[in-house]
Design brief:
Blueprint (H helix, E strand, L loop, with lengths): L1 H32 L9 E6 L8 E3 L2 E3 L1 H12 L3 E6 L5 H6 L5 E2 L7 H4 L2 E3 L4 E10 L18 E4 L3 H6 L13 E4 L2 H9 L5 E5 H10 L3 E3 L5 E5 L2 E3 L3 H16 L2 H9 L4
Parallel strand pairs: 1-4, 1-5, 8-9, 8-10
Antiparallel strand pairs: 2-3, 5-13, 6-13, 7-10, 7-11, 7-12
The structure holds glutamine.
The site of glutamine (GLN) has 14 residues, from loops.
Length: about 270
């Protein structure tokens, strides 16, 4: 009898384990069938260039930065799944315009020229163009910058730094021939370290991050320009523009926007 009980209990345990596994499987299958669960969330694609710390950069395989967190917070409010597309900065506007991406978030400055192609959300941050030089360089101030061929300027292709620096000397630039364009700001900074260019014109926060991460570089005193960062959205997608602006306003009211920015740009 005792032996029978023992066998019976072993059988019972095996049966329970089998049932447990099977039941678990059924539950999964039900979920996948979508009988009782909600439909999958719609996808919100964001195009960025993840070489622009602290706005967007990669930490191993993961994306991090102010823009990434703001985009995620907007997607959460819209009950959508955020999908990040890491592309060249210069292809963001075209991709948004053609509908390839829902929005472009890349520390992107609102300019009149870009406004001809896309709409911009309300601005969520301010950017300033600054100049990075090598420590000990003869270039000591913004006044020492010259478009006379004696120095080369490194910029990230298609950014406002590129657009302004490449402009004619009469318009406050240094002339196209004196500007060397790189795919990312990081590449421009490497060119500065290697002596291929004598100054890099770039947004102030990435400039600080690059100077902190690389020895022997310094930021010149003074601001080259002041700019507003906003989210690019296709002109015809006014529905998304309204939703994004509403989400941004809510994030601002909740203090979430300031919280995200403070996390990456601690007050000095
Ligand atoms: N703010 C600059 C621009 O909009 C640079 C942006 C960037 O390099 N990600 O052109």
């Amino acid at each position: 009898m005792k032996k029978f009980l023992k066998v019976a209990s072993i059988v019972l345990v095996i049966a329970m384990i089998a049932c447990f596994a099977a039941c678990g499987g059924n539950t999964d299958a039900d979920t996948n069938n979508g009988d009782t669960t909600e439909a999958p969330k719609a996808v919100l694609t964001m195009a960025t260039n993840a070489a622009f710390p602290p706005y967007e950069y990669k930490e191993g395989d993961a994306y991090a930065g102010i823009d990434i967190e703001i985009a995620q917070a907007i997607a959460d409010k819209l009950d959508m799944t955020l999908e990040i597309k890491d592309v060249e900065f210069g292809s963001i506007i075209g991709g948004v315009q053609s509908g390839k991406f829902d929005m472009g978030i890349a520390g992107m400055t609102v300019t009149d020229e870009r406004l001809e192609s896309v709409n911009f959300s309300t601005s969520y941050a301010t950017g300033i163009q600054v100049v990075i030089v090598a420590e000990g360089s003869d270039i000591k101030s913004l006044d020492d910058l010259k478009g006379d061929g004696s120095m080369k300027f490194g910029v990230q292709q298609d950014t406002t730094g590129d657009i302004y620096a490449s402009d004619t000397i009469e318009n406050g630039g240094y002339g196209e021939d004196n500007v060397i364009r790189y795919k990312t700001g990081a590449d421009a900074v490497q060119a500065l370290k290697a002596g291929k260019v004598q100054a890099v014109i770039i947004d102030n926060e990435p400039a600080k991050a690059f100077v902190a991460a690389n020895e022997g570089l310094a930021i010149l005193d003074g601001e080259w320009t002041k700019e507003d960062y906003a989210i690019a959205i296709a002109k015809e997608n006014t529905e998304l523009l309204t939703k994004v602006n509403d989400a941004l306003a809510e994030l601002e009211d909740e203090g979430k926007l300031a919280e995200i920015i403070d996390k990456y740009i601690p007050a000095e």
